[in-house]
Design brief:
Number of helices: 2
Mean pLDDT: 82
Shape: elongated
Strand order of the largest sheet: 4-5-6-7
Distance between the termini: 48 Å
Number of strands: 9
Bound molecules: FE2/S2 (inorganic) cluster
Length: about 150
């Protein structure tokens, strides 16, 4: 339709929309770079070694906390009955570390916005899998991948 309009000299409403010079990669680059820099910042902030090694007992009912144990980040929360719920704190989407949202009582991923219930099940994507389960193997922790 466009080529026909151009050849026949008809003014087309689509000409601006499909103009090959409409994309301005340099103008969009700033936003693209800042968005991805934030993802990298969130990822690096949570690398092993920066987590506080808190005791499980300090977690009150209805609260959650990231605890580092055996080099693994754990998303530990305590339900209202006092039972601990322990999952891997590594988001199954692209491996950022989730953070406890005390207002919503959820685990939220700062990188792309996935959210999980306190027990690790999915509330919102883009993630497609729940937080991985953690099991004890002898005196070592083992991450059990849940599909
Ligand atoms: S890494 Fe968690 S939502 Fe992408």
């Amino acid at each position: 339709m466009l080529i026909n309009d151009i050849i026949t000299g008809v003014e087309s409403p689509w000409i601006e929309l499909f103009d090959p010079t409409r994309v301005h990669p340099l103008r969009s680059a700033k936003k693209f770079i800042s968005e991805n820099a934030n993802v990298a910042k969130q990822y690096l902030k949570d690398l092993p070694g920066s987590a506080e090694d808190e005791e499980y007992a300090e977690i009150a009912p209805g609260e959650g906390k990231i605890i580092e144990k055996d080099g693994q980040k754990l998303a530990v929360s305590r339900n209202k009955h006092g039972k601990l719920q322990i999952r891997s704190a590594v988001c199954p989407h692209m491996s950022c570390v989730v953070h406890w949202n005390n207002a919503e009582k959820t685990w939220d991923c700062p990188c792309h916005g996935s959210r999980f219930k306190a027990d690790g099940t999915i509330l919102e994507g883009p993630v497609l899998h729940p937080l991985h389960e953690i099991q004890m193997k002898g005196d070592k922790l083992k991450v059990k991948h849940v599909e």
